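Each lists chain and fold; for instance:
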Amino acid sequence: MSAGKSALIVGATGATGRHILRALLASTVFTRVGEFGRKVTPEDQIAEHKASGKLVQKVIDFERVAEEGLGEGKWDVVFITLGTTRKAAGSAEIYVVNAARAAKTQDPAHKQRVVYLSSAGADASSHFLYTRSKGLTEQGLASIGFDDVIIFRPSFLAEANREQPKPGEAFVGRAVGLLSVVAPNVQIPVRTLAQSMYKAGEVGSAALPTGIKTEQVRFKDVFGKELSYTVIDTAAAVKLAGHA
């Protein structure tokens, strides 16, 4: 991918996504940015970038995402940061895979990368619905045909400042904050995570800075074809953010 990259972000109004959007808009590497979602960033927060033509926004219906034109932008990088509660696990993850599939260009010569915000413990064979849904979503993304699939599996997200906090999040946050004194990788600030995801999207898995430890997850799809994707955990994400 050459200079003048383009990026699509789905889920830019969430705790992590909003910081990725800011990084993309401030970037000189990414010259064209798309923000698609159920809702988009208020215009008074990004008016300068809309006026310049760098940012295109579109409110979409995830029930009809295939008809929303996500692939028309021929994006170099697709960031997906759609939030999912444990209660909504399963059905909500279908939206993630469908959105990624809709954003995949039909041009075989155009290289594309997808960067997805998953969760610690994601495992397609897990007995727990939430972590199993996340793991199956990761495999679903890797099965679409992107040239590079990068998955982030962060632990507890600190400093999220959500408009609608998840039940018990404040209590858990305080407990995790105390634990982080002796185990720093039990949490990661959303701004740090966003910086790391931005950097991974910019350079790709093959060009990550030296010393960033990743995991290659391999699996076979329903046709028996072996596929793989790159996983970045909390410790690696914190380290990678220092290169952003």
In short: The radius of gyration is 17 Å. The chain has one domain: 5-241.
